[in-house]
Amino acid sequence: MVELRIGYGFDVHKLVEGRNLILGGLEIEFPKGLGGYSDADVVCHSIVDALLGAAKLGDIGDNFPPTDPKYEDIAGLRLLELVKIKLANNGYEIENIDTTIICEEPKLGEIKEMMASVIAQTLDIDGSQISIKATTSDGLGCTGEGKGIAVAAVVLISEILLEEEEEEVEDEYEDE
Question: Which residues of the chain have pLDDT under 70?
């Protein structure tokens, strides 16, 4: 039987002056950006945390500490690439990713599909395996007041089956 594991990630960053807004690996035209040690891409960061959690490999801070100078201004897409390698090295592959971006502005409309495409390409998965949604918080809290952007992500990963194991699983189903 193939092992499936679910992971959940959440990230929120404050909107600040003087930074570019990076979401899902894309630079978004907006007067403010997200503050943080890296590029503060909350979309990628929430997915990173969900993937690491699903594989029981710690969290983003454990793996990419903000005290390490090599992670200063690192792109969220690069963190996703590194996590993809960690997953493969631990015997896991990505089944699907579902995210929800929570912000009043900017309005993300068609940009969501572009984000999904960039992330899918970075993780070497099919675009049908990733969903990016957006919602507001009806003016409530830091996201509703336009002070920040939050993202929640849920992922499903599975064991990477070796050819021998795949044959055993097929035989198992044929016997039924």
Answer: 162-176
